[in-house]
Amino acid sequence: MPSVRRIEEQGVWRPRKLGSVIAERRLRLVRRRKAARTVLVRFGRPVRSPRPERKDPWWCPVEFAGLGKRTLRSIAGEDSVQALVLAFQFVTLVLPAEAERAGGHIEWLGERESLVFANTLMLNMTSEALQNLVGGLATAVGVLENRGARRAVAARKVARQLRALIASGGYTSDPRRVPQPSNSALEADAPRRRAAQRER
């Protein structure tokens, strides 16, 4: 995909109007000691130049209203889907900064969102899992570096927590919250296996 700087230097065509609106979101700009106001973000249908050349990008126009002057930005992508996805990501990153510049923060559905468009359950779970894994590793390093008398007890506790993190895919370090696999068939066969081992 061409870089933004190269696109600007080459004077590549880009949409100057929003065009057909395919999606919009109404949010609230909340500021201290001032009335909240509506912020409207609208996404235009991804388009290409009227006479596109082979490597010309697709563009997704994005319009902000309610944060001061109405702003139109066009986000480039290799195809229409990438342009739309990148436009969502652009708004996710830029909107909180624009709200902060306007002296407030953005809320949607009554909640403060840090990632307005990408805050899905899976993203939250993945982020939490990563934080848990990093926290578990930091704890393990601390125990390994500690040469105190309680090191063995602490090491066993950290080992249990790390095993829980591994078993849960990073979602919890509490061994009580990790579902335990059932080995009922193996447990039922354990006496026979022990007897066979003694005969050897």
Description of the structure:
The chain has 200 residues and is α+β, with helices and mostly antiparallel strands. It folds into 2 domains: 4-112, no CATH class; 121-179. Helices cover 44% and strands 22% of the residues. The protein has 5 helices and 6 strands; from the N terminus they run αββββαββααα. Strands 4-3-2-1-5-6 form a 6-stranded antiparallel beta sheet, with helices on one face. β1 and β2 form a beta hairpin. The termini are far apart.
Q: For the CA atoms, what is the radius of gyration?
A: 27 Å
Strand order of the largest sheet: 4-3-2-1-5-6
Runs in which pLDDT lies below 50 for 5 or more consecutive residues are 1-9
Give the domain tally.
2
The percent range for helix content is 40-55%
Main sheet specs: 6 strands, antiparallel
DSSP summary, beta strand count: 6
What is the average of the pLDDT values?
Answer: 76
Q: Determine the strand fraction and express it as a percent band.
A: 15-25%
Counting H and I runs of at least 4 residues, what is the number of helices?
Answer: 5
Gross morphology: elongated
Structural class: alpha+beta
N- and C-termini, Cα separation:
67 Å
- In N-to-C order, the SSE pattern is HEEEEHEEHHH
